[in-house]
């Protein structure tokens, strides 16, 4: 008899839920960002740097 953790009926719903959480977090992080905003190259150099900054043209 298979253990509960080796059955597909356990892994498929768990993977769907975890995938939904990941997609939700991605979409949530993109709220409030304009299309013209670019990734900030100095983001990792300081705590105060934002992830996105306005495109300066």
UniProtKB/TrEMBL annotation:
Taxonomy, superkingdom: Bacteria
Bilayer-spanning residue ranges: 12-33
Record keywords, A-Z: Membrane, Transmembrane, Transmembrane helix
Protein name per its UniProtKB record: Uncharacterized protein
Source organism of this protein record: Enterococcus phoeniculicola ATCC BAA-412
């Amino acid at each position: 008899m298979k253990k509960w953790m080796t059955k597909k009926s356990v892994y498929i719903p768990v993977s769907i839920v975890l995938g939904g959480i990941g997609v939700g977090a991605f979409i949530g992080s993109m709220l409030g960002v304009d299309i013209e905003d670019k990734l900030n190259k100095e983001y990792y150099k300081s705590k105060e740097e934002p992830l996105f900054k306005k495109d300066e043209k």
